[in-house]
Amino acid sequence: MPGKNVCIVGSGNWGSAIAKIVGSNAKASNRFAPLVKMWVFEELVEGRKLTEIINTEHENVKYLPGHKLPKNVVAVPDITEACSGADILIFVVPHQFIRRLCDQMKPHIKPESIGISLIKGVDEGPDGLRLISDIIREKLELEVSVLMGANIANEVAEENFCETTIGSKNPENGQVFKELLQTQNFRITVVSESDTVELCGALKNIVAVGAGFCDGLGFGDNTKAASCGVADLITTCYGGRNRKVAEAFVKSSKSIAELEKEMLNGQKLQGPQTSAEVFKILQKKNMIEKFPLFTSVYQICYEGKPVKALIACLQHHPEHM
Ligand SMILES: NC(=O)C1=CN([C@@H]2O[C@H](COP(=O)(O)OP(=O)(O)OC[C@H]3O[C@@H](n4cnc5c(N)ncnc54)[C@H](O)[C@@H]3O)[C@@H](O)[C@H]2O)C=CC1
Ligand SMILES: O=C(CO)COP(=O)(O)O
C-alpha cells in the first residue's frame, strides 16, 4: 500500500517546527509518503519569495530562523495545490485565518482524509464559543483531532525534551498522528477528550497575557498565579523553594538536606519529603511504573539515582509507549 500523503497547512513558527518533525518521521516510515507538502502564505523576504528560500535553503528564515527543515518538506504557495491528494492534513495557522482557508480548500479535499489541528484559539458565533476543530470539521467534513501542549516552537525545534497531548475521538486516528508526530524528545499522550485538550490549549493564552501584564507591572509569582490548581503548579516550577533547591542540588555536590539548611534559613522544603511519602504509597499499591516522575524524583533525592536519569525516565513514560 502506498504511504499516506501529508500536507501541513501553515508554516509560521510552530508550523515550521512541526514540519521538521513531520518531514523526518514521514521519511523514516513506510506508512507515510516521504514527500510532505507545506502550504506557505507567500511573501517576499529581502526581495525573494519565501517559498523559494525554503525550497532552496531548507530553512524558514523568517519564522524559524536557524533550523534546517528536512529536504522532503516542500513549500507550496497555492493552498489548493498543497492540499490536493492529501490523506492527512495538519492545520497550524493563526486561528484568525482558518475560516477563509477552509473555504478555499473545500473543493480539493480528498474523501476519507483526516485532520489534526495544532491551532490554539477559539471562535465566537451566535451560540457562543466555537472550537477551531469544529469549524474545520463543519467546513471540510472530515474527522479532526487536536494536538496541544506546553510546546514553545523554538524549543521543540531545538529538540529539547517536552510533552504534548493529542485529543482524538477516534483512537485509530490518534495512533496515526502519534506515529507521525512523536519523537524521542517530543512525547505524546493520546486521550479521547479532544474538546478539553483544545479548550485548555486555547484558554491558556489568555492567562499568558494576564501573566505578561503582571510582569510588566512588576508584581511577583503569587500575583501571576492568582487562581489555583494548574497555576500553582506553574508558579512553583518557576519561582518556588523546591525548584530553587533542586537546581542547586544539580549544580553542587551537596545533599538536599545540606542545601535546605544553607539556602532556606530555617524554612522547610515539602517536595522531597512528599515524594518519599508518595513513593511508599505507590509501592504498597504496586503502582510505581505508572508514576515515573514521582518515583524518579524520590530516587534522585534519597537513593543516589543520577539526576540525568530524570529525562530517560520521562522518555519511557507508560503513556508514551
Ligand atoms: N509558536 C509557538 O510556540 C506555538 C504556537 N501554537 C499555535 O499554533 C498556531 C500557529 O502559530 P505559528 O505557527 O506560531 O504562527 P505564527 O505566529 O508564526 O504566525 C505567522 C504565520 O501566519 C501566516 N499568515 C500571515 N498572514 C496570513 C494570512 N492572511 N492568511 C494565512 N496565513 C497568514 C504567516 O505566513 C506565518 O506562516 C497558533 O494558533 C498558535 O497559538 C501552538 C504551540 C506553540
Ligand atoms: O502555545 C505556546 C506554547 O505551548 C506558545 O505560546 P505563545 O503563543 O504565547 O508563544
Automatic annotation (TrEMBL):
Catalytically driven reaction(s):
sn-glycerol 3-phosphate + NAD(+) = dihydroxyacetone phosphate + NADH + H(+)
Which InterPro entries does the record associate with it?
A: 6-PGluconate_DH-like_C_sf (IPR008927), 6PGD_dom2 (IPR013328), G3P_DH_NAD-dep (IPR006168), G3P_DH_NAD-dep_C (IPR006109), G3P_DH_NAD-dep_euk (IPR017751), G3P_DH_NAD-dep_N (IPR011128), NAD(P)-bd_dom_sf (IPR036291)
An example of a Pfam family matching this protein is NAD_Gly3P_dh_C
Sequence ranges assigned to domain Glycerol-3-phosphate dehydrogenase NAD-dependent C-terminal in this UniProt record: 226-311
SUPFAM superfamilies, A to Z: 6-phosphogluconate dehydrogenase C-terminal domain-like (SSF48179), NAD(P)-binding Rossmann-fold domains (SSF51735)
What's the chief localization of this chain? cytoplasm
Q: Which GO terms describe its molecular function?
A: glycerol-3-phosphate dehydrogenase (NAD+) activity; NAD binding; protein homodimerization activity
The record, for NCBIfam families, names:
glycerol3P_DH (TIGR03376)
The family assignment reads: Belongs to the NAD-dependent glycerol-3-phosphate dehydrogenase family.
What is the protein's name according to its record?
Glycerol-3-phosphate dehydrogenase [NAD(+)]
Kindly list the organism's lineage: Eukaryota, Metazoa, Chordata, Craniata, Vertebrata
